[in-house]
Amino acid sequence: MPNTMNQVATLTQVTETPNALAEFLRGLPGVDAVGADQRAASLATRSIKTESKRRAIDLAISMIDLTTLEGADTQGKVKAMCAKARHPDPLNSEVPHVAAVCVYPDLVAIASKELVGSGVAVASVATAFPSGRADLQTKLSDTRFAVSQGATEIDMVIDRGAFLSGDYLKVYSEIVATKSACGDAHLKVILETGELATYDNVRRASWLAMIAGADFIKTSTGKVTPAATLPVTLIMLEAVRDFREQTGRMVGVKAAGGIRTAKDAIKYLVLVNETCGPDWLTPQYFRLGASILLNDLLQQRQKMITGHYSGPDYVTID
Length: 318
What we know:
This protein has helices spanning 4-13, 18-26, 33-43, 50-62, 75-86, 108-114, 136-148, 160-164, 168-182, 199-211, 230-247, 262-275, 293-306; strands spanning 64-67, 100-103, 121-126, 153-157, 186-190, 216-218, 252-256, 286-290. The protein is α/β, with parallel strands linked by helices. The chain has an 8-stranded parallel β-barrel, surrounded by 8 helices.
């Protein structure tokens, strides 16, 4: 595009002062909330059948960040999850591996060891997940530790209090610093959209994260209700699409929290395709953060092959 360089320069300039950044974010077009809800609801009614459905299920499996983020997590649980991530269906080698395993920083070394050579990435939450309530040096130490243990992806949380009070430059600076602390690891920035209150804030937070260098923008920690929703994900997808038009850089989107069934996952794939196009229909640019979604995808896939649902022992209990 002929104006790309000027647009990139403009985005660089908006971070020079707090006022410039605030003016840019508040100057973004407002979200038509009714329109967003209606479009998301309309796309959710799309029907995908037979072979296209099977391909969609396999694609969804390949996009999963298989996640365990509980205080009761153990090394044994993480090892079992990594085995499932590598071979979701041990009886069928055609089932793809998942995109990543996501754990707390102290369990990264275990996951990293279990996933060597698998093609499955090791993701870790950091920056005082899930609240984000810590000083910057603690957040950066958290990030560096996870990377040193083998994390190839970092899922950070923004300071929602700072964002909602209008201190956009603080949020921007923390994302920039965390991105630097990641080294070669990819950075996913969690917006926690359930706490942002408005669709306009979701759009602003999406742009803020991308300007600061996020490789992915992510809906939720999964610890706040509502977590991922189709309208919120639509707004974030529109943001990454428009950001590429202005800068030439592609940023991924991760929908996380509350996505439990194959039917739900396929709705998100339709949303991605209709909003951003096929370039984003890859684990490199779209992820589903989930813990129990994989089981339903496997069961639905098996039903398509055999014509009936498998017994309760077909999938593991996570």
